[in-house]
Amino acid sequence: MFTAEPIRSVHFLGVCGTAMAAVASQLKQRGLRVTGSDENVYPPMSTFLAEQGITALSPYAAHNLDAVGKPDLIIIGNAISRGNPEVEAVLERHLRYASLPDVIREFLIRGRTSIVVTGTHGKTTTTSLLAWTFQHNGHAPGYMIGGIPLNLDSGCACPPDARHFIIEGDEYDTAFFDKRSKFLHYLPDTVIINNIEFDHADIFPSLDSIKLTFRRLINAVPRNGIVLANGDDTNVHDVIANAPCPVKTFGLGPDNDFRATDLVLTPDGSSFRVSRSTFHIPLLGQHNVRNALAVVAASLHHGLTPEQIQAAFVGFRGIKRRQEIRGEVAGVTVLDDFGHHPTAIRETIRAFRVRFPGRRLWAVFEPRSNTTRRCVFQKELAESLAEADGVFVSQIARLEQVPEHERLSPDRLVADIAGHGRPAHYLKDADAIIAAIMPLLRPNDVVAVFSNGGFGGIHGKLLKALQAR
């Protein structure tokens, strides 16, 4: 993809995506001329791009490529498909193009030690905590995170003298012209595998196909690199068998190389011991202990001391949309969480039980991800949501995109939750849910909203309704 011809100008298709905009900003800081286009350009992303001096055109059109002066390289986001007028122009004119992971590899990672954080759950938290641990201790790493870490200035940075690049490694596919997992592009020296479950039902036909892409990732780790793997996860064990590089395990079981013991979970955070060192994190739940344990293992491997790691842990503030308190009105606390997989929802609800002991907990769930819109987790979603005291489920997002025989059945979901002894309701949208839940809320209640989208602004609307009451 990258030839001897110099690249002085780039154009991003899908520039308003969080990752696309972040990388566009980095390339702009490196002195490249950067432009972009998207279907819709509006705040806050339009403001961010304007502040970076990046022109963002809308809507997509073939003449956009002429308007920005025939860029040396077109970067095509993974949400872009054939039929897009700019894509068709790029192909017809034989212009040079690449995926975002290609560009991250060549412009941000190559020449640095690459630490790739993977797994079905916990990638964003683990990557953010690891990047913060390095930065707090003076290592100033480059990083790319699929969320908004509260300790860091942005989700992406790459100081010119960075020795390490820490990246959230997604197993989702790369682009319409490259169906390999994104993480296969990232030149891994250290790979963290937090866990492996079935997910992304729109592109992976089975759990075995997911395991295969993780094996391909491990095959790209050099012999002087390392895989740090969750030794308590049977699917991870299958994947690391016969690895061609060193492997060390972390977990709670006795056979792990890095073992967490003496767990204490409190409303203010969690603590655990690794060998002779005790670590405290202001994060809730056993799943976050595992995330922090992965960070301990990676940090120790790269030369940090237990004291340095703990000093960073104390100041970690978390990530937006991960167990985030959006507000409290009239004694009712409204929480926001990105959880969109049964395991993540279950573990987060259990963490909320620790954080808010004795309080009634409502779960509000939007089936929005490509997996939860389908029936593959019909039974498991009911079991996870039934860990709350009451449940509201909204209409499936973008229902028309899922074949009828593959769709999640909301009626069956709420019936199964009721079968677990929990009241459950299926309503059309955020407004309908607010109208139904408001008469039921009383002081000391907690409302946890689970969605990987905007969910109709439900958090702000609910807080406003509580204020009005």
Terminal CA distance: 59 Å
CATH class of the largest domain: Alpha Beta
Largest sheet, spatial ordering of strands? 8-7-9-6-12-13-14-15-16-17
Task: List the total number of helices.
Answer: 15
- Give the helix level as a range of percent: 25-40%
Question: If you compute it from the alpha carbons, what radius of gyration comes out, rounded to the nearest whole angstrom?
Answer: 23 Å
Please identify, by name, the CATH architecture of the largest domain: 3-Layer(aba) Sandwich
Report mean pLDDT, rounded to a whole number.
91
Number of strands: 23
Q: Label the structural class.
A: alpha/beta
CATH H-tier superfamily of the largest domain: Mur-like, catalytic domain
CATH topology of the largest domain: UDP-N-acetylmuramoyl-L-alanine:D-glutamate ligase
